Amino acid sequence: MAARESVIRGIGKSVKAVAKSRGSEWWYTPHMAAAACAIGERLPLVDLVLEVRDARIPLSSECLQLRNTSSASRIIVLNKADLADRSQTKEWLSFFEKKKCMAFGVNSHNRDNIREFLTFLQARVRELKKKDDRAHAITFMLVGIPNVGKSALANSLHQVGRISAAEKGRLKHSSVTPQPGETKSISSLKIASHPNIFVLDTPSVLIPDVIDDEICSKLALTGAIKDCVAGEINIAEYFLSILNLGEEYKKWAKLSSSETGAVSTSEGSSSLGKKQKRQYPTDHTQDFIVNNVRRTLFDAVSSFSGCTNNGEDLARLIQEQFVVLQKPSLGKAIVHHRRLHRPHHSLNVAVSTSKYILPP
User: Fold this and answer.
1) SS3 readout for 111-133
2) What global pTM score does this model have?
């Protein structure tokens, strides 16, 4: 545990150093401060606030600006539910229900799930209209910290909602990137008709003051803080400490070598491209590169002779995992992965796309 705590302190120290520097490009920037003001001005004007959180860390990804917002006018949306443990997500939904907070788990890339969510939202609209017979168009506002998937959710609601309403016309799109904090302005997208419902996609907001080290580490691991702030090696070490001390890796034993083995260079990039297309294009937890990394990590942990509860042994295991992830066979697959997706080193492939369990 000492090794993990050391990594957490290192990440916290790195983030705090950036946050304290004036004119920081990564923490509570001028555009983020302006966005916080704009969101605050619109809060009393919208019908419902959709607070988007990361389903893997439903407490740590809270948007503190909304803490004093009435639970009657807010819905907590646990996005990226496909990356979280399903049973734990159900428990969190029950937790929020007991707290008298409306909550819904969603995967922005699953159309059926988006349709369910849209139906849920339309039911809430009918409840609003019963209370005060609102004749105007209904407006929701998506709010949240960086990289919880607000823009992806807005786009999916817009696309599915327009198709369901059989509306013609060009679809609008909010900008979506894997980097946190890329949305710079508030945009409006129509998601339903009869009544007309619009959703406002807003820029991400972090609080001015740095939170504690462990929350910083969780936000860095899930992509809410840019890798360069916390340090890629620090993030990878934190991920591996969680993996090695948990039970998740044992599920990877069932991965066969044919599913996870590296592709030889003789197959060429065209074969890799075809294989990639045949597999799950929107679910990178099933990416053949990710499965290859999982298998490599499983072999390293299961063959380790030390005790992971011992700090020195855990640190040694992590270093051994660093070594095996640099093997040429895996490295060639990683190079191809960089061409298909945003740049990653071998550890970040596992960190960014693997299903893992985090304390909330």
Assistant:
1) HHHHHHHHHHHHHHHHHHHHHHC
2) 0.80
